[in-house]
Amino acid sequence: MEQSSFQDEQTVRHQFDSLCKLALKSEVINYEKHMAYRQKYEVMLSELSEKELSRLFIMEEHEMETHRFQVLGYDIEVKDALIAEALQTLTEKKRNVVLLSYFMDMSDADIAREMNLVRSTINEHRRRSLELMRKNMEESANEKK
């Protein structure tokens, strides 16, 4: 009787192993189908071109009060009213140095070349301009309080 019970137990184990293998094979097939579907219909964002990326969203810009400054043929737009107000208090040379430096990302040497000045003069104009702007912006902020 022990032999029969051992054989029944072996049969049940083989049946269970067979069922597990069948389930795993089925899962592999489902996974491979899913991955094939994803590969066919999905693309990583990093693989999209600029044109394709731009179609995925809309950037809505509201009409904001902007201030425009003309500097050496460049049209520079300043969106922050407080900064624009502080820039308007500067002399034209100092304003031009700040705008070219911070809004056009030009180096001191490039600005000096464009304005026919010495590089150290540009550095000094920028330093003094920032001090004046800071002072004007602080005064403006204190007045609003």
UniProtKB/TrEMBL annotation:
Matches recorded under Pfam families: Sigma70_r4_2
Q: Name one GO molecular function term.
A: sigma factor activity
- Gene Ontology biological process terms, A to Z: DNA-templated transcription initiation
Q: Which residues form the RNA polymerase sigma factor 70 region 4 type domain?
A: 82-131
SUPFAM superfamilies on file: Sigma3 and sigma4 domains of RNA polymerase sigma factors
The name on file for this protein is RNA polymerase sigma factor
Q: Which organism is it from?
A: Blautia obeum
